[in-house]
């Protein structure tokens, strides 16, 4: 493979992308910052073949050798490390504390990696959260379920309000379970403990993506979930966008509480019927469900390049202001995606429903043929079999369309 | 009202198509704008949007118009499709029937790209307008049932909606290339196949049926084409006056009852002529023969179209022949009539053990397992024993018509053919053991090898697309062959040295030459190998001795771009001069179609160069350039130095240009010998 001619702006920063994401590499490749990919050694042949700048590193738990990668990157002249996945958030914190000579960044990253610590800190900062507790075994879960429902003045025999169980340090929906009765507690495998338990908030859940530079929000997107774990679209409907100023205030509170000066946050909130915002959790990395790709479709800017700008200490205010469009009004339309789970127990092939394929909003899909005929029963929110992308000009039609997909079979 | 509905419907289709074409264009643009290292990850989206377009009426034309842009996106890269000049038309029938979306779509896009080339819309660096046209005409011929046939249950089950794409593409090709090319090409193709006189003619029958259906359909304008199909269609559906209208076997039987002897005679000669012209037998022919058996046995010879040799044989063994017909020839097993006729012509019944062995065959009890297999392959009627008799007659009459079907069992197919050709009573013994006892025992260097005790064969599963004899015997032979190979583990060199003579028969030469070093895969003493082959087989250098027994040999099969495909077992049958006084090797290839293009201008001929039915042939040197194993008699020595150096040089270069390109030992040679 011949070396590519690359033109980087020498006045701008040199960034390290932590973790392997082809879309991120593609974005960096066509941007003006020098970059290097830090990824496990299985990525090496690909990077070599395609002349992608690369440093091998296996992101396991932080250990004594952690300083090695920070030093390597520092010696190369890298200015900042950007985490692409949940698992690399603490690495970015550790590395950036060396690169930017700011030890506080490491502690901040640890806070953002542990859901229980995160909630405490949020509470301390005056952010409203639901009731939560750590559980170390099934007993803890049953006790919490009972107490939450007593607090809600439920009588024996009333249907319980559910509680939510989440792993401390996993991204998004991985390991997320909903428990309604003590019987269901038995279905939790031993190895999932310890977990974080939260009361159920009867509200409207949504996510925010915010690019932060010099302590200020430079772009704030609200992602509307149609059904959690199934579908999302951007920008949100006016029904949700009407809370934008309130949401912005919440994010500013978050920035202050977690002392975030630059980078990118992806928090989740509930808004209850009376307009109260409850904080769910926050991640310091790009969201799953391809929201970055949806943003590019809706607004035309590359969200990964925005990420590089927000992290690069050499980015100027003017530069970043010019880069981002104006929220909502600059969107060319609404982009959404739907995660497919097979509905039947036994499937033999992928077959797109005609009504989906023929819908004018339908754009493309990433579904692959089934690997196995028997579908494993879903125990937790988890891995969908692929995404379907839609684009159109009416947020309500988009919402209903995404909702409707849940009633269709993609695998038969 | 109807008109309005139709207009509305076509408007819907047009709108749908426009939306999908837009998505395809977006995808093409997306891929084209991507850096090279992320393209691969975006190809699935491109293929899926192409799939959507191809599903809709008119979609093929849109894809054809974008063919060049789509190819430039790299959808064919890393596969054979990237080299359209080497594509083989017959493989399209598999890919167009694939249950894999990607395979079907890529194949369809490749066809449409070549259509753009053939129409002069796309100047392709690797393939000319004429080549593309020629290729597509063959693709159409081979996939004709997609054009006219009704979707089968299997197609629906395996492919689902994907079948629509295959059908749309073939229809679009037919409309753009013209139906007349399809039919004439198909007819030529059928004649080419029939010239090899295969035992299995199911596919050929199906294709002829397609043509007949197509000609009868007033909506299809065939222009001036399809004239050559008369003989083919009539040989199956109306070989004589009395069945020209294809009245059905019952009606024909009624007709026969009313005929006088002159009319019956004319029926008999008519059927016989059709059969010998084509190698195909009409079910009416079976009805006629059974009828003659009871009413005018003297006309049976006429109905078989026998020469004086065959007639003589029939008269000597009349009872046996009648018993074989009575038990084995029915409208379903009609193809056995041809086998019977040719068997009588071969005179093999005069070999003492053959007639009694056939008597055993007539009454042979078939084991429940074998019955089940025959029933699965051929259906419930007539009984399994009748099918087996038909199989035996076909194999003894057409020993070079044996095919391996879709199985990697060329060794076993070759053995069956060799026995039928050279040792017919041994073949009948094998059939009896397999069909009656479900076990065959052969011996390897004195050790018994049982097919029942041997674990696994070369093929994991033997498919049902075989003639009745192969269907029952091949699974046994395959296991024995593999077991013999296992018994050679630890010996130095190639196991065929020992296995071939033990497996095929005493007449396989115990001397053995191979030009590949087994351990390294490199060429080994090519010069000595070729000289030795000349003095063993070439009449000019072996004392003008014609080949006595068929000999097993191994060839390195290459594709039409002369790239190595794999090792393959064949039989060398004879070496002799053709009508142009060129020395040719005539051989049997158990592959179902011997007419193959091996690249570097080596095209195996199956007729027109002195071949008998079922033989393949090549000029001596061209054959030698693909040979890697042969057997010889170690006691017959010639003078290897007498072979001209330029012959050897020329053949060696053919080896280096093809399968030997990366097998040249030593770095020094590698530099100047490869094809570049």
Q: What do these coordinates show?
A:
The complex is a heterodimer of chains A (412) and B (676). In chain A, strands 13-12-9-10-11-14-16-15 form an eight-stranded antiparallel beta sheet. Chain A has 412 residues and is α+β, with helices and mostly antiparallel strands. Chain A has helices at 22-29, 44-49, 66-76, 89-99, 104-113, 115-124, 138-151, 182-185, 238-241, 244-257, 291-299, 303-311, 317-323, 354-357, 395-405; strands at residues 14-18, 34-39, 54-56, 80-83, 132-135, 163-167, 177-179, 195-199, 204-213, 216-227, 231-234, 263-271, 277-283, 334-339, 362-365, 387-392. The longest helix of chain A is centred in the middle third of the chain and has 14 residues, at 138-151. Chain A has four domains: 14-107, Rossmann fold (3-Layer(aba) Sandwich), CATH 3.40.50.20; 132-199, Dna Ligase, domain 1, CATH 3.30.1490; 204-331, D-amino Acid Aminotransferase, Chain A, domain 1; 335-405, no CATH class. In chain A, 32% of the residues lie in helices and 23% in strands. The mean pLDDT of chain A is 87. Chain A is globular, with a radius of gyration of 22 Å. With 676 residues, chain B is of the alpha+beta class. Among the domains of chain B are: 2-177, no CATH class; 365-487, no CATH class; 511-673, no CATH class. A six-stranded antiparallel beta sheet of chain B has the order 3-8-4-5-6-7, with helices on both faces. Chain B has a two-stranded antiparallel ribbon with strand order 1-2. The longest helix of chain B has 32 residues, at 2-33. Chain B is globular, with a radius of gyration of 28 Å. Chain B starts with a helix and ends with a helix. The model of chain B is unreliable at 667-676 (pLDDT under 50).
Descriptive key words:
heterodimer; A: 412 residues; Rossmann fold; Dna Ligase, domain 1; D-amino Acid Aminotransferase, Chain A, domain 1; 4 domains; 8-stranded antiparallel beta sheet; 15 helices; globular; B: 676 residues; alpha+beta; two-stranded antiparallel ribbon; 31 helices; 55% helix; disordered C terminus
């Amino acid at each position: 493979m011949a070396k590519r001619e690359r033109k980087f702006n020498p006045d701008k920063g040199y960034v390290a992308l932590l973790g392997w994401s082809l879309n991120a590499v593609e974005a960096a490749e066509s941007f003006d910052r020098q970059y290097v990919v830090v990824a496990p050694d299985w990525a090496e042949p690909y990077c070599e073949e395609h002349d992608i700048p690369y440093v091998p590193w296996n992101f396991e738990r932080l250990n004594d050798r952690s300083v090695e990668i920070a030093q390597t990157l520092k010696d190369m002249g890298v200015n900042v490390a950007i985490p692409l996945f949940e698992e690399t958030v603490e690495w970015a914190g550790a590395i950036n504390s060396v690169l930017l000579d700011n030890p506080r960044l490491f502690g901040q990253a640890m806070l953002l990696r542990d859901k229980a610590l995160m909630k405490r800190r949020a509470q301390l900062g005056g952010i409203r959260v639901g009731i939560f507790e750590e559980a170390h075994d099934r007993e803890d879960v049953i006790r919490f379920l009972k107490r939450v429902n007593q607090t809600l003045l439920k009588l024996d025999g009333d249907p319980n309000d559910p509680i939510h169980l989440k792993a401390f340090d996993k991204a998004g929906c991985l390991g997320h379970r909903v428990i309604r009765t003590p019987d269901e507690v038995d279905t939790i495998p031993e190895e999932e403990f310890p977990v974080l338990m939260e009361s159920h908030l009867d509200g409207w859940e949504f996510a925010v993506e915010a690019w932060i530079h010099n302590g200020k929000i430079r772009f704030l997107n609200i992602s509307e979930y149609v059904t959690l774990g199934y579908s999302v679209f951007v920008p949100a409907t006016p029904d949700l966008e009407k809370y934008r100023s309130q949401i912005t205030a919440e994010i500013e509170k978050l920035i202050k509480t977690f002392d975030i000066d630059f980078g990118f946050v992806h928090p989740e909130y509930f808004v209850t019927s009376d307009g109260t915002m409850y904080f769910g959790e926050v991640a310091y990395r790009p969201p799953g469900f391809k929201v970055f790709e949806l943003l590019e479709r809706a607004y035309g800017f590359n969200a990964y390049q925005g990420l590089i700008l927000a992290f690069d200490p050499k980015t100027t205010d003017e530069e970043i202001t010019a880069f981002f469009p104006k929220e909502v009004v600059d969107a060319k339309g609404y982009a959404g995606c739907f995660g497919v789970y097979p509905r039947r127990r036994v499937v033999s092939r992928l077959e797109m429903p005609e009504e989906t394929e023929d819908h004018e909003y339908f754009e493309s899909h990433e579904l692959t043929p089934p690997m196995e005929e028997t579908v494993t029963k879903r125990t937790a929110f988890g891995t969908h079999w692929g995404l379907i992308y839609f684009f159109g000009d009416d947020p309500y039609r988009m919402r209903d369309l995404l909702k409707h997909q849940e009633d269709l079979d993609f695998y038969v | 009202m109807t008109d309005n509905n139709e207009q509305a419907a076509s408007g819907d289709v047009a709108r749908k198509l426009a939306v999908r074409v837009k998505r395809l264009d977006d995808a093409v643009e997306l891929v084209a704008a991507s850096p090279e290292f992320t393209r691969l990850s975006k190809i699935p989206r491109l293929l899926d949007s192409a799939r959507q377009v191809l599903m809709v009426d008119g979609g093929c034309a849109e894809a054809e118009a974008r063919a060049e842009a789509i190819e430039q996106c790299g959808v064919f890269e890393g596969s054979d499709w990237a080299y359209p000049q080497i594509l083989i038309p017959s493989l399209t029938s598999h890919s167009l029937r694939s249950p894999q979306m990607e395979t079907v779509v890529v194949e369809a896009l490749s066809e449409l790209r070549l259509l753009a080339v053939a129409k002069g819309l796309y100047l392709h660096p690797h393939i000319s307008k004429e080549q593309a046209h020629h290729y597509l005409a063959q693709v159409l011929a081979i996939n004709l049932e997609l054009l006219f046939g009704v979707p089968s249950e299997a197609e629906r089950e395996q492919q689902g909606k994907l079948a629509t794409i295959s059908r749309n593409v073939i229809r679009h090709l037919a409309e753009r290339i013209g139906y007349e090319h399809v039919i004439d090409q198909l007819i030529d193709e059928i004649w080419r196949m029939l010239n090899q006189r295969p035992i299995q003619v199911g596919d050929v029958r199906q294709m002829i049926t397609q043509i007949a259906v197509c000609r009868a359909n007033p909506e299809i304008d065939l222009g001036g084409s399809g004239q050559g199909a008369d003989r083919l269609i009539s040989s199956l559906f109306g070989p004589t006056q009395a069945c020209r209208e294809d009245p059905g076997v019952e009606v024909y039987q009624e007709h026969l009852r009313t005929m006088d002897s002159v009319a019956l005679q004319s029926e008999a000669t008519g059927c016989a002529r059709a059969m010998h012209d084509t190698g195909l037998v009409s079910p009416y022919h079976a009805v006629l023969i059974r009828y003659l058996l009871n009413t005018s046995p003297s006309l049976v010879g006429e109905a078989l179209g026998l020469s004086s040799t065959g007639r003589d044989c029939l008269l000597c063994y009349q009872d046996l022949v009648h018993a074989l017909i009575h038990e084995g020839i029915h409208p379903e097993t009609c193809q056995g009539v041809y086998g019977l006729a040719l068997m009588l012509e071969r005179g093999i019944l005069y070999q003492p053990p053959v007639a009694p062995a056939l008597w055993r065959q007539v009454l042979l009890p078939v084991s429940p397992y074998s019955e089940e297999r025959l029933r699965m392959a051929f259906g419930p009627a007539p009984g399994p024993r009748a099918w087996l008799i038909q199989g035996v007659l076909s194999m003894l009459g057409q020993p070079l018509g044996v095919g391996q079907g879709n199985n990697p069992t060329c060794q076993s197919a070759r053995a069956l053919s060799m026995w039928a050709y050279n040792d017919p009573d041994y073949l009948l013994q094998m059939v009896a053991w397999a069909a009656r006892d479900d076990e065959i025992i052969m011996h390897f260097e004195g050790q018994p090898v049982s097919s029942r005790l041997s674990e696994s064969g070369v093929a994991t599963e033997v498919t049902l697309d075989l003639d009745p004899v192969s269907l029952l015997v091949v699974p046994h032979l395959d296991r024995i062959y593999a077991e013999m190979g296992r018994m050679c583990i630890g010996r130095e060199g190639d196991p065929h040295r020992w296995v071939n003579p033990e497996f095929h028969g005493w007449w396989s030469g115990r001397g053995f030459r191979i030009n590949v070093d087994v351990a390294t895969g490199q060429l080994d003493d090519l010069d000595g190998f070729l000289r030795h082959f000349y003095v063993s087989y070439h009449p000019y250098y072996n004392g003008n001795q014609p080949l006595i027994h068929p000999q097993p040999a191994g060839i390195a099969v290459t594709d039409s771009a002369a790239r190595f495909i794999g090792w393959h077992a064949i039989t060398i049958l004879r070496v002799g001069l053709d009508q142009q006084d060129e020395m040719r090797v005539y051989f049997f290839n158990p592959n179902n179609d011997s007419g193959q293009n091996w690249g570097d201008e080596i095209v195996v001929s199956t007729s027109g160069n002195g071949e008998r039915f079922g033989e393949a042939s090549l000029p001596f040197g061209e054959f030698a350039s693909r040979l890697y194993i042969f057997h010889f008699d170690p006691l017959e020595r010639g003078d290897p130095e007498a072979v001209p150096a330029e012959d050897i040089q020329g053949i060696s270069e053919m080896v280096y240009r093809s399968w030997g390109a990366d097998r040249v030992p030593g770095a020094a040679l590698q530099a100047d010998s490869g094809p570049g």
